[in-house]
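Quarterly update from the structural biology core.
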Amino acid sequence: MSDPETKEVKLEIQLDEETAQGVYVNLAVVNHNDTEFILDFIFVQPQAPRAKVRSRVVTSPRHVKRLLLALQENLARFERTFGPIEPAVQRVDGAEGHYH
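Predicted structure, tokenized:
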């Protein structure tokens, strides 16, 4: 049951041309402290000794939880449609929280 005092707010999300193109990444590095999560999205070229962060997202723990749930839900839908994805999680440089 919804609260009669609660008003639904419509959110208009704008997406500029450059952002709409997206960027390809194949590595994510996740770090956190007591108030925020930092997610670095990186493209690693095969056989290259260096990689570049393509995007950094800094967000709250509460939002990370919502993002995790949304990713789990969408991944489950994807696998129902296209079949299971075999995980290939590898630790990078042995540091806690660094995965790709």
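The radius of gyration is 18 Å.
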